[in-house]
Protein backbone atom coordinates (compact mmCIF):
# COMPACT_ATOMS: atom_id res chain seq x y z
CA UNK A 1 0.00 0.00 0.00
CA UNK A 2 1.47 3.35 -1.04
CA UNK A 3 1.20 6.37 1.21
CA UNK A 4 -1.39 7.87 -1.13
CA UNK A 5 -3.43 4.67 -1.05
CA UNK A 6 -3.27 4.86 2.73
CA UNK A 7 -4.57 8.45 2.66
CA UNK A 8 -7.39 7.34 0.36
CA UNK A 9 -8.30 4.66 2.91
CA UNK A 10 -8.12 7.28 5.65
CA UNK A 11 -10.75 9.37 3.85
CA UNK A 12 -12.96 6.29 3.60
CA UNK A 13 -12.28 5.54 7.27
CA UNK A 14 -13.57 8.98 8.26
CA UNK A 15 -16.56 8.89 5.91
CA UNK A 16 -19.68 8.71 8.04
CA UNK A 17 -17.71 9.82 11.09
CA UNK A 18 -16.01 13.15 10.43
CA UNK A 19 -17.08 13.36 6.80
CA UNK A 20 -20.66 13.55 5.64
CA UNK A 21 -19.74 13.26 1.98
CA UNK A 22 -16.83 12.38 -0.32
CA UNK A 23 -16.77 13.94 -3.78
CA UNK A 24 -14.69 12.15 -6.43
CA UNK A 25 -13.29 14.42 -9.14
CA UNK A 26 -11.08 11.71 -10.60
CA UNK A 27 -7.86 13.60 -9.94
CA UNK A 28 -8.95 14.62 -6.43
CA UNK A 29 -11.11 13.32 -3.59
CA UNK A 30 -12.94 16.03 -1.64
CA UNK A 31 -14.14 15.50 1.92
CA UNK A 32 -17.04 17.49 3.36
CA UNK A 33 -18.12 17.91 6.98
CA UNK A 34 -21.52 19.51 7.49
CA UNK A 35 -21.01 20.37 11.17
CA UNK A 36 -17.44 21.67 11.26
CA UNK A 37 -16.18 24.04 8.51
CA UNK A 38 -12.53 23.53 9.48
CA UNK A 39 -10.23 22.81 6.50
CA UNK A 40 -8.95 19.80 8.44
CA UNK A 41 -12.27 18.10 7.67
CA UNK A 42 -13.01 19.78 4.33
CA UNK A 43 -10.12 19.14 1.97
CA UNK A 44 -9.15 17.85 -1.46
CA UNK A 45 -6.70 14.94 -1.45
CA UNK A 46 -4.51 14.87 -4.57
CA UNK A 47 -1.61 12.71 -5.76
CA UNK A 48 -0.35 14.66 -8.76
CA UNK A 49 0.46 18.15 -9.92
CA UNK A 50 -2.60 20.24 -10.75
CA UNK A 51 -3.20 22.40 -13.79
CA UNK A 52 -5.21 25.64 -13.62
CA UNK A 53 -8.36 23.95 -14.92
CA UNK A 54 -8.19 21.22 -12.29
CA UNK A 55 -7.63 23.75 -9.51
CA UNK A 56 -10.65 25.70 -10.77
CA UNK A 57 -12.74 22.51 -10.56
CA UNK A 58 -11.60 21.98 -6.97
CA UNK A 59 -12.38 25.58 -6.03
CA UNK A 60 -15.80 25.38 -7.68
CA UNK A 61 -16.61 22.18 -5.78
CA UNK A 62 -15.72 23.80 -2.46
CA UNK A 63 -17.77 26.86 -3.38
CA UNK A 64 -20.83 24.66 -3.94
CA UNK A 65 -20.24 23.06 -0.54
CA UNK A 66 -19.83 26.43 1.16
CA UNK A 67 -16.26 25.71 2.20
CA UNK A 68 -12.88 27.38 1.71
CA UNK A 69 -10.66 25.53 -0.83
CA UNK A 70 -8.08 23.29 0.85
CA UNK A 71 -5.54 21.00 -0.83
CA UNK A 72 -3.92 18.03 0.96
CA UNK A 73 -1.13 15.84 -0.40
CA UNK A 74 1.82 13.68 0.55
CA UNK A 75 5.05 15.61 1.12
CA UNK A 76 6.93 13.88 -1.70
CA UNK A 77 9.77 15.35 -3.74
CA UNK A 78 7.91 14.90 -7.04
CA UNK A 79 5.03 16.98 -5.65
CA UNK A 80 7.22 19.90 -4.55
CA UNK A 81 6.27 21.93 -7.69
CA UNK A 82 2.66 21.78 -6.45
CA UNK A 83 3.69 23.94 -3.50
CA UNK A 84 4.92 26.75 -5.75
CA UNK A 85 1.86 26.39 -7.96
CA UNK A 86 -0.51 26.73 -5.01
CA UNK A 87 1.41 29.62 -3.48
CA UNK A 88 1.22 31.45 -6.82
CA UNK A 89 -2.55 30.89 -6.71
CA UNK A 90 -2.78 32.56 -3.26
CA UNK A 91 -2.81 29.37 -1.20
CA UNK A 92 -0.83 29.09 2.02
CA UNK A 93 0.28 26.14 4.13
CA UNK A 94 -1.49 25.97 7.50
CA UNK A 95 -0.45 22.53 8.71
CA UNK A 96 1.82 19.58 8.03
CA UNK A 97 0.59 16.24 9.32
CA UNK A 98 3.12 13.72 10.55
CA UNK A 99 1.66 10.26 9.90
CA UNK A 100 3.05 8.01 12.60
CA UNK A 101 2.90 4.21 12.80
CA UNK A 102 3.59 1.96 15.77
CA UNK A 103 6.96 0.23 15.47
CA UNK A 104 5.75 -3.10 16.89
CA UNK A 105 7.85 -3.00 20.06
CA UNK A 106 6.34 -4.87 23.06
CA UNK A 107 3.38 -2.90 24.42
CA UNK A 108 3.79 -1.36 27.87
CA UNK A 109 0.58 -2.37 29.66
CA UNK A 110 0.93 -0.06 32.67
CA UNK A 111 -2.54 1.14 33.82
CA UNK A 112 -4.34 -1.13 31.35
CA UNK A 113 -6.39 -2.50 34.25
CA UNK A 114 -7.68 1.06 34.74
CA UNK A 115 -8.97 1.43 31.17
CA UNK A 116 -12.70 1.23 30.51
CA UNK A 117 -14.39 0.97 27.12
CA UNK A 118 -17.33 3.34 26.69
CA UNK A 119 -20.33 1.02 26.45
CA UNK A 120 -23.31 3.10 27.59
CA UNK A 121 -24.73 6.60 27.25
CA UNK A 122 -23.63 7.29 30.82
CA UNK A 123 -20.07 6.28 29.92
CA UNK A 124 -20.31 8.44 26.82
CA UNK A 125 -21.22 11.55 28.81
CA UNK A 126 -18.27 10.93 31.14
CA UNK A 127 -16.01 10.46 28.12
CA UNK A 128 -17.18 13.67 26.46
CA UNK A 129 -16.81 15.71 29.64
CA UNK A 130 -13.31 14.35 30.24
CA UNK A 131 -12.36 14.77 26.59
CA UNK A 132 -13.49 18.39 26.66
CA UNK A 133 -11.53 19.09 29.85
CA UNK A 134 -8.38 17.59 28.32
CA UNK A 135 -8.46 20.07 25.42
CA UNK A 136 -8.35 23.67 26.64
CA UNK A 137 -6.84 26.96 25.53
CA UNK A 138 -3.37 28.08 26.57
CA UNK A 139 -2.11 24.53 27.07
CA UNK A 140 1.53 24.28 25.87
CA UNK A 141 1.11 20.54 25.24
CA UNK A 142 -2.09 20.98 23.22
CA UNK A 143 -1.64 22.70 19.84
CA UNK A 144 -5.27 22.09 18.88
CA UNK A 145 -7.11 24.33 21.33
CA UNK A 146 -10.71 23.76 22.40
CA UNK A 147 -12.90 21.11 20.78
CA UNK A 148 -15.86 23.31 19.82
CA UNK A 149 -18.14 21.66 17.25
CA UNK A 150 -15.92 18.59 17.18
CA UNK A 151 -17.44 17.44 20.47
CA UNK A 152 -20.89 17.20 18.85
CA UNK A 153 -19.44 15.10 16.03
CA UNK A 154 -17.72 12.79 18.50
CA UNK A 155 -21.02 12.20 20.29
CA UNK A 156 -22.98 11.55 17.12
CA UNK A 157 -20.31 9.23 15.70
CA UNK A 158 -20.38 7.00 18.77
CA UNK A 159 -24.13 6.43 18.43
CA UNK A 160 -23.69 5.55 14.75
CA UNK A 161 -20.70 3.22 14.94
CA UNK A 162 -19.95 1.96 18.45
CA UNK A 163 -22.21 -1.10 18.22
CA UNK A 164 -20.38 -2.39 15.12
CA UNK A 165 -16.94 -2.18 16.73
CA UNK A 166 -15.75 0.23 14.08
CA UNK A 167 -15.40 3.09 16.56
CA UNK A 168 -14.38 2.56 20.18
CA UNK A 169 -13.94 5.17 22.92
CA UNK A 170 -11.83 4.55 26.02
CA UNK A 171 -11.49 6.15 29.46
CA UNK A 172 -8.49 5.75 31.75
CA UNK A 173 -9.11 6.12 35.48
CA UNK A 174 -6.86 7.18 38.33
CA UNK A 175 -8.52 5.59 41.33
CA UNK A 176 -12.18 6.54 40.68
CA UNK A 177 -11.57 9.62 38.55
CA UNK A 178 -11.47 9.63 34.72
CA UNK A 179 -8.20 11.30 33.73
CA UNK A 180 -7.50 10.34 30.10
CA UNK A 181 -9.30 9.42 26.88
CA UNK A 182 -8.63 7.89 23.47
CA UNK A 183 -10.44 6.64 20.38
CA UNK A 184 -9.78 3.70 18.05
CA UNK A 185 -11.25 3.50 14.57
CA UNK A 186 -11.01 0.05 12.94
CA UNK A 187 -11.27 0.05 9.16
CA UNK A 188 -10.07 -2.56 6.64
CA UNK A 189 -6.82 -3.42 8.37
CA UNK A 190 -6.12 0.06 9.73
CA UNK A 191 -6.29 0.90 13.41
CA UNK A 192 -6.49 4.69 13.54
CA UNK A 193 -5.93 6.24 16.97
CA UNK A 194 -7.18 9.73 17.79
CA UNK A 195 -8.68 11.96 20.48
CA UNK A 196 -5.91 11.10 22.94
CA UNK A 197 -5.81 13.47 25.88
CA UNK A 198 -5.16 13.61 29.60
CA UNK A 199 -6.02 16.09 32.32
CA UNK A 200 -3.27 18.60 32.99
CA UNK A 201 -3.25 17.56 36.65
CA UNK A 202 -1.94 14.07 35.76
CA UNK A 203 0.42 14.88 32.90
CA UNK A 204 3.69 12.97 33.19
CA UNK A 205 2.14 10.07 35.12
CA UNK A 206 1.64 7.83 32.08
CA UNK A 207 -2.12 7.97 31.63
CA UNK A 208 -2.00 9.48 28.15
CA UNK A 209 0.53 6.83 27.20
CA UNK A 210 -1.78 4.13 28.55
CA UNK A 211 -4.74 5.55 26.62
CA UNK A 212 -2.70 5.40 23.41
CA UNK A 213 -1.08 2.00 23.86
CA UNK A 214 -4.35 0.38 24.94
CA UNK A 215 -5.66 1.36 21.50
CA UNK A 216 -2.60 -0.29 19.92
CA UNK A 217 -3.37 -3.49 21.83
CA UNK A 218 -7.04 -3.42 20.84
CA UNK A 219 -6.11 -2.67 17.23
CA UNK A 220 -3.77 -5.67 17.27
CA UNK A 221 -6.51 -7.86 18.75
CA UNK A 222 -8.87 -6.68 15.99
CA UNK A 223 -6.42 -8.01 13.40
CA UNK A 224 -5.38 -4.67 11.95
CA UNK A 225 -2.12 -4.64 9.99
CA UNK A 226 -1.14 -1.11 11.01
CA UNK A 227 -1.72 1.04 14.08
CA UNK A 228 -1.37 4.73 13.34
CA UNK A 229 -2.15 8.31 14.23
CA UNK A 230 -1.51 11.79 12.91
CA UNK A 231 0.15 14.72 14.65
CA UNK A 232 1.51 18.05 13.50
CA UNK A 233 5.21 18.28 12.71
CA UNK A 234 7.22 20.00 15.42
CA UNK A 235 4.57 19.88 18.16
CA UNK A 236 4.64 18.33 21.63
CA UNK A 237 2.31 15.44 20.64
CA UNK A 238 4.68 14.58 17.80
CA UNK A 239 7.58 14.23 20.24
CA UNK A 240 5.41 12.40 22.79
CA UNK A 241 4.34 9.68 20.37
CA UNK A 242 7.92 9.27 19.15
CA UNK A 243 8.93 8.42 22.72
CA UNK A 244 6.30 5.70 23.17
CA UNK A 245 6.86 3.72 19.97
CA UNK A 246 5.49 5.62 16.97
CA UNK A 247 7.63 6.46 13.94
CA UNK A 248 6.84 9.03 11.25
CA UNK A 249 6.46 7.28 7.89
CA UNK A 250 5.56 10.36 5.84
CA UNK A 251 4.23 13.88 6.15
CA UNK A 252 1.37 15.64 4.37
CA UNK A 253 0.92 19.42 4.13
CA UNK A 254 -2.45 21.17 3.99
CA UNK A 255 -2.84 24.35 1.94
CA UNK A 256 -5.85 26.67 2.05
CA UNK A 257 -6.87 29.59 -0.13
CA UNK A 258 -5.77 32.79 1.59
CA UNK A 259 -8.45 35.30 2.59
TrEMBL record:
Q: Which residues form the N-acetyltransferase domain?
A: 113-259
Q: Which domain of life is it from?
A: Bacteria
Q: Which PROSITE patterns match?
A: GNAT (PS51186)
Q: Which GO terms describe its molecular function?
A: acyltransferase activity, transferring groups other than amino-acyl groups
- Name of the protein described by the UniProt record: N-acetyltransferase domain-containing protein
- To which species is this protein native? Candidatus Amesbacteria bacterium RIFCSPHIGHO2_01_FULL_48_32b
Amino acid sequence: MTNFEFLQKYLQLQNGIMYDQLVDLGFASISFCQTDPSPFWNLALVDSLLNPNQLAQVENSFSKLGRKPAIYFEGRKDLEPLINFLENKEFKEINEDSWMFYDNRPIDQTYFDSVKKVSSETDLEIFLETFNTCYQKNDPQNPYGELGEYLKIAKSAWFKHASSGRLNYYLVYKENKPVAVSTLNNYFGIGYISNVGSLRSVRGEGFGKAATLFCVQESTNAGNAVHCLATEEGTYPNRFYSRIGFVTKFTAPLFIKAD
